[in-house]
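Here is the promised in-class demo. Please do not try to memorize the tokens; focus on the logic of going from shape to residues.
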């Protein structure tokens, strides 16, 4: 990592621009990693389908409406992607146990296993990157991100 002394004679505006550059680089790298992870799951599917898989893997069974809201996708896109995931054997739908009119979507065993493997690879790449950081650098990064995120929710 670069030394703090490198930034001592830079204006606030230039510092903010440099921060923006680094945040954009982080977002781009994160997106690229997500796309590679989606391809590791199933390269024949669109990366957006893996958002649905990842959500179901993390949170469990849910409705298509809840998936659309949680992933910020429109319902027609979720429906199309869920149908592709069903045809591939990754997702199943079942009648809601408390509302016979409702449908719950969940991962099949195949879907869970493939998601686990894809996410394990993603985690390995992430941990390889942060393994070069000192504990102090990680703490500073965590606190800075928490600060930036909390400012966004006000």
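The designed amino acids, position by position:
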């Amino acid at each position: 990592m670069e030394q703090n002394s490198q930034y001592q004679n830079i204006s606030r505006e230039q510092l903010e621009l440099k921060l923006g550059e680094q945040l954009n680089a982080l977002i781009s790298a994160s997106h690229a990693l997500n796309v590679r992870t989606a391809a590791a799951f199933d390269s024949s599917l669109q990366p957006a389908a893996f958002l649905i898989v990842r959500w179901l893997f993390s949170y469990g069974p849910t409705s298509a409406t809840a998936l659309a809201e949680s992933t910020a996708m429109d319902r027609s896109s979720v429906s199309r992607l869920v149908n592709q995931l069903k045809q591939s054997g990754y997702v199943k739908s079942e009648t809601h146990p408390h509302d016979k009119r409702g449908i719950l979507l969940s991962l099949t065993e195949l879907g869970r296993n493939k998601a686990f493997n894809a996410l394990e690879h993603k985690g390995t790449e992430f941990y390889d990157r942060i393994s070069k950081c000192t504990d102090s650098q990680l703490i500073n990064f965590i606190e800075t991100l928490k600060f930036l995120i909390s400012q966004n929710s006000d």
